[in-house]
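Blinded run. Sample ID left blank on purpose so nobody reads anything into the name before looking at the predicted structure. Input follows.
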Amino acid sequence: KRAAEITDLRKQNQDKFQAKENFYKQKWESIRAAQAQNAQARDKARALRDQTRQGLMEQKNRGARNTKDQSREFLYAKKEREAQERQTNQERSQYLKARREDAKRRAEEERLAQLDKFREDYEARTAQEELLRARTDALVAKMEKEEMELIQRLQNTQTVQRNAYEQLEAALGQTSQQVPSSSHRALSARGGGGPGHSKAGPRGAELPQPAA
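Blinded prediction complete.
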């Protein structure tokens, strides 16, 4: 009986020890599970932090790249705008220069045309004056020639008349020597003799006087 009690007591102690061991074992496993869970949670949290940090870094890098790209685009757009403005200013300058040169060319052409017109007018006026002078000279020469011819004819006429008077006087002189003095006196009485009377022809006509 005492042995059975000892055996029961030993068995009870073993059961208590086993129960305690199982309790601690379960508790340890629970702790280990909790630690493992905590470690897993920490890993997840660390991974999340790393992922978040990586995301922030990438976002920051993307922002920096975007800022850099925007700056590059702004700079490129600025250069393009400046180049366009320079091109526009150059084209405007060339256009204004062409306008000035065209205006200068037109003014020079108008000046040359005006000079040509003046020259043509001067030449036309000079030619007209030369023509008028030539016509005047020709008219004067013609009038002088006609005058010389008229003078020559007049001189010829006077010469002819003088010769005729001389021949007539000679003929009358010969006739007066042959006619008797009585007949000569009667002829002088009919002709209104006396100083300054006009000489008559054979039929009593008045003879023309020679030109001076």
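Unblinding after everyone has recorded impressions. Confidence is low (pLDDT under 50) at residues 191-212.
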